[in-house]
Amino acid sequence: MKKIYQTILICLGVMGITSCSDFLDQKSPSEIDQSDLALKPVYIQQVMNNMYAGLTLDHTYGCRMPLNFSTNSDIELVDATKLEDFTNAEDRGASNYNPSTTWSRLDNNWQSMFKIIEGANVVIESVDQSPIMADKNNSDYNTLLHYKGEALTIRAMVYYDLIKTYGDIPMKFEPTKEDGSNLYLEKTDRDVIYERLLSDLETAAAALPWAGMDGYTTEHATKGFAHGLLARIALSYAGYSIRETAKEGYETMPGSDPSYPTQRPDAAKREELYKLALTHLDVIIKDGPHKLNPSFEDEWYRINQRTLDNQYYENLYEVAHGLGTSGEMGYTIGVRLNAKDNNSASWGYGNSSVKVQLTAPFFWSFDHKDLRRDITCANYTIEGNDKDTPDIEKMAGNKPFQLYVAKWDVRKMSEEWLKQNKNASAKKGYGINWVVMRYSDVLLMYAEVMNELFGPDAIGTATCGKTGRDALMEVHCRAFDTADQANAQAYVNGISSADFFDAVVDERAWELAGEAVRKYDLIRWGLLSSKTQEMLDNYINVVKPNAPAKLYYNMRSDDPKSIDMSSVQWYATPANTGDYKKSSDFWGKDDSKLEVFTENISSGLNKTVINRHLLPLGSSVISDSKGKLNNSYGF
Question: Exposure of 426 by Cβ count < 10 A (0-12 exposed, 13-18 middle, 19+ buried)?
Fold first, then answer.
């Protein structure tokens, strides 16, 4: 996508290049011994670039971690239309908590993620062993210090995401030894790994520059992301997770599985972790360059345009994808493009067959004036007929559990993207970066932690000058036009202390839907099952009885192929239906197929083991471990 991605591609190809250029005439990482790495920063950079390249694969952050593995929740689902979709061993079934150990993507993900970790281990050890680090006056000292900080941060991110996915995993924080003595490792309690990650991120945050300094963009791990990731991990550590065996002194979630309990640390440890998270969130808010883009719409326009934000730096870190090379943002997730024969006149090749989608109860939860609603939720598709007929926008009809995620939208994408996609006959990398963390997430974590430690309106030990309510206010009010600010502020000011946590839960849904955050929030809060059931109950008891049977709207007068979104009558049948030229069946229509959804969404979560939110280790991972690894949780 950007310069870092071009460098990655060059470095991946250098082993086959002969050139008089000093830069190109290098050894491949597999040919470089440890002494060379320690002496030559350019070699360490090459290994680090390979580490970053690993993040772009479909089996890592091109698709699996941000998309395939991040559903289901109360607001985000993988698409499914029939019973076998919910129960199969792959894709849709796995998202409904019915995975199989034979699903090959589990093995591929595991192997690809640990390759990234291995690269990070090599970088870290090489920097530690370099004689350059003994001399702070050496011109390469800061370069290597930054490399180590980046590797520590990326390694922490990958380990954290592996733990979120699989639970307890092997702890390997050194390169593989030549004799293979550290190759086959048993599982380590995830809390032991968390402690190491938190320590590593303290080191990384001290070593790294802020975004915008020293040539660092948000496509690199920077100081702000190291601080933010530390806070995210601390909150997960403090939260609930299913365990292979009960841990003494830990609190067990009510209704937990008798064999595999869902637990969290005791109150004293949780307070320690909240304070640690606050320290690092406070630094970001007080000292960092990161702030909210005043326009939520513009934030997502820039992301779709593949343009780095060097003005607000709202994105703390984003995995750099390359156009035509990697990334499924806009493909597996985004406004649905139904192209006839995979060739749409206006936009080109259509979307993935497995899609991340949203729910009608989530749509109805928004304030009617909240601008995030229509930027986040799409109850329509773009229909491509043939090469000679322009696309037309079409309401999707009665699909209350199949709303598309509008944050990624082909109509916002760049001319460069369009040129590629119109000529495509198969899936190509969309090249849109995966944003791992935004500043709004930082503010909402801050609001949550401040409320836990001091309540919503006290400053406590924070030095940035914000209360928890101030942070929530900043995120919530950004979502409303100037004319609606008074009502937005009144909503936040009216939240009682007793209801403040619930308000944070709601705000994180409205702000971060589709961004691989919600499922893991609900897990750590102990709310995954109850919130999913609440969503289904809200559909039956609130949305379905109150939604109009038909949705009335008009097409735009200046563009008859596009829906006039301001005309859509979402919440009631208009008094004069004759004022509207278009209508479609809406979420209130009786449809027996909906029973499949309401009975089977997330059907595997509590079927075999209560709150089995983790995926199993793949069969090849188990067989290749020489007896060191095994599955748990009834898999």
Answer: exposed
Question: If DSSP codes are grouped into helix, strand and coil, which group holds residue 434?
Answer: strand
Tokens representing 548? 């109009």
Give 84-119 pLDDT, tens digit per residue: 889 887 889 999 999 999 999 999 999 999 999 999
Take residue 232 and report the two structure tokens written for it: 């995210």
Q: Give the pairing type, strands 336-339 and 380-384.
A: parallel
Closest CA to 439 of 413, 478, 465: 478
Under 8 Å between Cβ of 447 and 497 = no
What does the H/E/C string look like for 245-271? CCCCCCEECCCCCCCCCEEECCHHHHH
| CB-based contact 173:245 (threshold 8 Å) | no
* CA-CA-CA-CA dihedral for 402, 406, 408, 413, to nearest 10: 130
CA 438 to chain centre: 10
| 39 alpha-carbon distance from chain centroid | 37
List average pLDDT for each run of 10 residues in the chain, which is 635 residues long: 40 30 34 68 93 97 96 94 85 92 96 97 95 95 97 98 98 94 96 98 98 96 98 98 98 98 98 98 98 98 97 98 95 86 65 86 98 97 73 90 95 92 83 98 99 98 98 98 98 98 98 98 98 96 93 96 95 96 87 81 96 97 96 96
Judge whether 97 and 603 are in contact, CB under 8 Å.
yes
The torsion angles phi and psi of 553, rounded to 5 degrees, stand at -165, 170
* Beta-carbon contacts of residue 171 (< 8 Å; ≥ 6 apart): 185, 188, 192, 193, 196
Query: Nearest 5°: CA angle at 529, between 528 and 530?
Result: 100
Helix (H, G, I), strand (E, B) or coil at 191: helix
pTM over 0.90: yes
Q: How far apart are CA 210 and CA 562, in angstroms?
A: 42
CA distances from 340 to 285, 328, 355, 389, 392 (A): 48, 20, 18, 11, 12
CA distance 383 to 403: 15
Number of Cβ within a 10 Å radius of residue 206 = 11
Measured N-to-C along each axis, helices 439-454 and 267-287 cross at an angle, to the nearest 10 degrees, of 140
Please state, in angstroms and rounded to a whole number, the distance separating the CA atoms of residues 144 and 147: 5
Find, among 476, 473, 298, the residue nearest to 375 by Cα. Answer: 298
The burial class, CB within 10 Å (0-12 / 13-18 / 19+), for 392 is middle
Whole-angstrom Cα distance, residue 77 to residue 97? 11
Reported as a single tens digit per residue, the pLDDT across 526-567 is 999 999 999 999 999 999 999 999 999 999 999 999 999 999
Alpha carbon 470 to its chain's center? 25
What letters, b where the CB count within 10 A reaches 16 and e where it falls short, cover 97-126?
Answer: bbbbbebebbbbbbebbbbbbbbbbbbbbb
Strand partners, 383: 338, 392
490 Cβ contact partners less than 8 Å away, ≥ 6 residues apart: none
